[in-house]
Amino acid sequence: MFIPVAQAQRQEFEAVQCYASTHNRIHSSPDLGIVSIEQKGITQSTHVSELFDSWTRHSIYIVKKVGDKMSWNGFTKTLAPDGEFIIWEFSGDTQGGTNTKALYGSGKWKGVKGEYNGKRITSGKPIDPNTDQFCEKVVGWIELAK
Question: Which of 95, 33, 92 has the alpha carbon at shortest distance from 64?
């Protein structure tokens, strides 16, 4: 007997994400730096599918600096224009960049799987001392259960 199984839909995506960040220094010394960062921003799709176009973003993460090496981890909530959202978890370091994986989704994004990597493409002079404004190019994939 044959039982049909729903196939997942996998889609590739590319986008530019721009952020404004606020940094809160927890500790700063020549040997160790620890900073919490809160970011808010928006995504502009650069892919023909326009997946994630005009989604807004809110991220919270911790950065650790030991000598010349930095590492970070945290979470991002991406919010679609229709109010549905995806929660992403990320980690990275100065050697390997940032890897981001889908953790949770609402509505049609429930059960989502996906991953993307980002690379900073531009940044500006900070508007205030404990801020950062920049954009990154992201490339990844997303998979929805049918």
Answer: 33
74 part of a folded domain? yes
Is 102 part of any domain? yes
Domain membership flag for residue 5: no
Count Cβ neighbours within 10 Å for each residue of 74-111 and write b for 16 or more, e otherwise: bebebbbeeeebbebebebeeeeebebebbebeeebee
Q: What are phi and psi of 20, to 5 degrees?
A: -120, 130
Domain with 89, as residue range(s), is 18-144
Per-residue pLDDT in tens (0 to 9) along the chain, 146 residues:
333 444 568 999 999 999 999 999 999 999 999 999 999 999 999 999 899 999 999 999 999 999 989 999 999 999 999 999 999 999 999 888 889 999 999 999 999 999 999 888 999 999 999 999 999 999 999 998 76
The pTM score is 0.88
Q: DSSP readout, 58-73?
A: EEEEEEEEETTEEEEE
- Bridge pairing between strands 85-93 and 56-66: unpaired
CA end-to-end span of the chain: 22
Domain count, the chain: 1
